[in-house]
């Protein structure tokens, strides 16, 4: 997939793993509040997680477990792409389509996709319009609410791949768009994995 970017988060309603080396989850922090569990019991294809650190940037070692910092620093996304999301209560190492690595916190949202539809974006390209159920929209609102004022970002993760990095300042709702500069085939692939 080509580089992804946030097209926009749309306020619609009132409430509104990973690429870990060795194939295991990097850590088991306490469960996030407001998490909407997937119906199947395992991690869902769609998750929203806070971004704790980005590979290659100065890391605040005091805020992140040292073992996770070392794993993030040595993460090779181009050689070992992710295929699944980590369980909701665990932090995870993940990659985006360009090969950038991220350390993500426990999932604030796990599943809850009611519909995923491919939409054309003005100026060319395609995005996926994702409609969330009420519980997942509320959980996403809680996640974003905890990031407001901290310049924090959250990651939209689909099958272990970071597909978008919205800012908490972008707002949140029961419907959001991810992508925007994808081809039709790329957008169709993401939408199919969400439904």
UniProtKB/TrEMBL annotation:
Domain of life of the organism encoding this protein: Bacteria
Name under which the protein is recorded: SecDF P1 head subdomain domain-containing protein
Stretches with biased composition (Low complexity): 22-34
Ranges of residues in domain SecDF P1 head subdomain: 115-194
Species: Nocardioides cremeus
Short name of one Pfam family: SecDF_P1_head
Renumbered residue ranges of the record's region Disordered: 18-42
InterPro entries: SecDF_P1_head
């Amino acid at each position: 997939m080509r580089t992804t970017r946030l097209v926009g988060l749309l306020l619609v309603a009132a409430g509104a793993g990973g690429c870990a080396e060795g194939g295991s989850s990097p850590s088991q922090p306490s469960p996030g509040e407001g998490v909407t569990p997937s119906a199947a019991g395992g991690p869902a294809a769609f998750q929203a997680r806070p971004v704790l650190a980005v590979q290659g940037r100065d890391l605040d070692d005091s805020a992140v477990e040292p073992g996770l910092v070392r794993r993030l620093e040595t993460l090779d996304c181009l050689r070992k792409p992710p295929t699944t999301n980590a369980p909701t209560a665990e932090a995870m190492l993940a990659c985006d389509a360009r090969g950038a690595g991220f350390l993500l916190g426990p999932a604030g949202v796990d599943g809850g996709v009611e519909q995923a539809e491919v939409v054309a974006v003005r100026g060319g390209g395609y995005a996926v319009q994702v409609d969330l159920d009420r519980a997942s929209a509320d959980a996403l609102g809680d996640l974003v609410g905890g990031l407001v004022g901290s310049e924090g970002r959250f990651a939209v993760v689909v099958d272990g791949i970071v597909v978008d990095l919205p800012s908490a300042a972008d707002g949140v709702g029961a419907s959001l768009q991810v992508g925007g500069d994808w081809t039709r085939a790329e957008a169709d692939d993401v939408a199919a994995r969400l439904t």
